Amino acid sequence: MHILIIGNMGYIGPEVSQHLRRTFPDAHISGYDTALFADRLTCEGPIPEIVLNKQYFGDVRDFPPSLLEGVDAVIYLAAISNDPMGKKFGEVTDEVNRKSCIKIAQFSAIAGVTHFAFASSCSVYGCASDHPLTEYDVTNPLTAYARSKIEAEIELKELYSEKMFISCLRFATACGFSKRLRLDLVLNDFVASALQFREIRVLSDGSPWRPLIDIRDMARIFEWAITRSGEKFVIVNAGSDENNYTVKQLAEAVASQIPGTQVDINHDAPPDKRSYRVDFSYLSRIAKNYVPQISLAHSITSLIDGITECNLAQIPVFSARLTRLNTLSDLIATGKLGPELYWSTKNVSQNKKSFENVSYNQ
Predict the structure, then answer these.
(1) How confident is the model over 250-264, as a mean pLDDT?
(2) Do 38 and 10 form a contact (C-beta atoms < 8 A)?
(3) What's the rounded Cα separation, in Å, for the pair 54 and 325?
(4) 2-176+212-242+272-293+326-356 has which CATH code?
(5) Distance between CA atoms of residues 289 and 133, nearest Å
(6) Residue 285: in which H helix or E strand, if any?
């Protein structure tokens, strides 16, 4: 089995790579990434890509179709991956999250890829209703990021064929510890703030709903998506009913595990329209062995243990360093990255070369 993970050098990719290596020890697993966040490693030690057979460097907007020769399954993780980045880089968000995804899916169909898994998002629902939302409910994307995801889903459906399984996975908000940790995600941010300052500042009134999923459970769902049978094209909410929480509940859950933490809620904040509860029952029907298993408490524990073990809370600027928009802004300010998020110098992320991980023995 040959698996290609596109966008593997971010927050989720390291866990997906390691899970697939454990699950398919004899598989040929490769990655493709522009390496914008490659140096944002959480701890010292071997880079996560050590488990891959090969790592390719390049931008998805310039993806070479030849890399798909012999590939059985493609996981499309590449994305401008949150609302603040989408607001600042709107055009690039569409190019990376939608246009490049569709182009590579088309290349994949031509190359004979049998499974294509797209990391979509529950953010496509946008605004809460009086009931948890299913895949059949109307979507209401409120941001460039969410619009790029739903539009990619629509175009992927048009690629329907009898030769390739396409899975659009509407993931809940990611959380949990990673070898490339992100702190611009709600639960991760709360845990980091509590550990460093013994304070959690909730910028809204705490009422918006957020479904959560640990990245370890995301990796298991990707495993299902690249091996599944049944319907050729599926859109599925990826998470668990038990992990629908309000932002206030998340803050209180973190505070309960980190003694002395004060929760400060801004009751005067304007309403946050990005609020949604989600129904995940369809996933439990079509992939019952892959439903999320990791509870909110366990995700918090993994973050506490990981941040503590890496001594991150002792580093004054660690939160800024592990926030993606800050990373991009710093790269642009220093001239390393252009405003369209292309590397401005000829380094490894742009020269389309690859390397063999000779340290990995199958």
Answers:
(1) 96
(2) no
(3) 28
(4) 3.40.50.720
(5) 22
(6) helix 281-286
